[in-house]
C-alpha cells in the first residue's frame, strides 16, 4: 500500500530561500510545536542534491532536483503525510506537505480526513513552521501550493521563479490561510492580517 492514498489532498506549503540545506529544514521542522516524524534512510536525501536530467538523452538538459519523503504528523489525530521538496530556481526551494484532505475519514486506508473544525490545527502548524524557518511565503489549500503565487508561465526550474514575481490577488482566496514575511507586505492586496512573531503576516480566508 502506498503511504498516502486517494484525495483530494490538503497541502501545507512554503517557499524558502537557498542556500538553506534540506537537512537544516528537516531539523527545524522537528523542533516545532507539532511532532513530525521523517521516514527515510540517511542517504536518501543525497538523491535530492544529485538530481537527474529532465531529458536523459540530452547531457545539456536542465537538471531536476526534487524528493518525496514519507511523514507522520502528530496533530490531534495522527496523520500520514508526504513532503515534496522541489528546487524551482537557483535561489528558491518549494516545500509541500500533503495530507489526505477529504472531509470524511478513510478507515480502509487508516487515513483521517480534515473536518472544518480541524483546519485551525493546520494553521497552527503553518505558524509553528514559520517561527522555526522564517520562510518567505507559506499557505494551506486544497490541491494547491504556494508556487501558484508566482506570476510565471514557465515550468520549473526557471529563474523567473523569484520573489519579485509573486502576485497574490488572483489566487489568495483559494487558500484557507497564507503567511508571508513582512518584507513582502507591499505585494499584498488590501486585506485584514494578523501579525505573527513581529515578522510575518497571516491572512485567513473568510470564504473557507
UniProtKB/TrEMBL annotation:
Organism expressing this protein natively:
Paenibacillus contaminans
Q: Which superkingdom is the protein from?
A: Bacteria
Report the protein name in the record.
Uncharacterized protein
Amino acid at each position: 500500500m502506498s503511504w498516502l492514498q486517494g484525495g483530494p489532498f490538503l497541502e501545507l506549503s512554503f517557499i524558502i530561500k537557498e542556500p538553506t540545506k534540506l537537512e537544516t529544514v528537516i531539523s527545524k521542522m522537528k523542533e516545532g510545536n507539532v511532532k513530525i516524524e521523517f521516514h527515510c534512510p540517511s542517504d536518501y536525501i543525497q538523491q535530492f542534491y544529485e538530481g537527474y536530467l529532465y531529458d536523459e538523452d540530452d547531457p545539456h538538459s536542465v537538471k531536476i532536483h526534487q524528493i518525496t519523503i514519507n511523514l507522520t504528523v502528530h496533530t490531534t489525530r495522527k496523520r500520514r503525510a508526504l513532503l515534496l521538496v522541489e528546487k524551482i530556481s537557483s535561489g528558491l526551494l518549494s516545500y509541500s506537505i500533503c495530507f489526505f484532505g477529504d472531509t470524511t475519514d478513510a478507515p480502509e486506508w487508516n487515513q483521517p480526513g480534515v473536518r472544518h473544525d480541524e483546519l485551525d490545527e493546520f494553521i497552527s502548524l503553518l505558524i509553528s513552521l514559520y517561527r522555526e524557518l522564517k520562510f518567505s511565503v507559506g499557505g494551506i489549500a486544497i490541491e494547491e501550493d504556494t508556487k501558484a503565487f508566482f506570476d510565471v508561465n514557465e515550468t520549473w526550474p526557471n529563474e523567473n521563479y523569484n520573489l519579485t514575481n509573486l502576485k497574490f490577488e488572483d489566487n489568495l482566496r483559494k487558500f484557507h490561510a497564507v503567511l508571508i514575511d513582512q518584507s513582502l507586505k507591499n505585494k499584498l492586496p488590501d486585506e485584514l492580517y494578523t501579525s505573527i512573531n513581529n515578522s510575518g503576516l497571516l491572512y485567513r480566508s473568510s470564504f473557507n
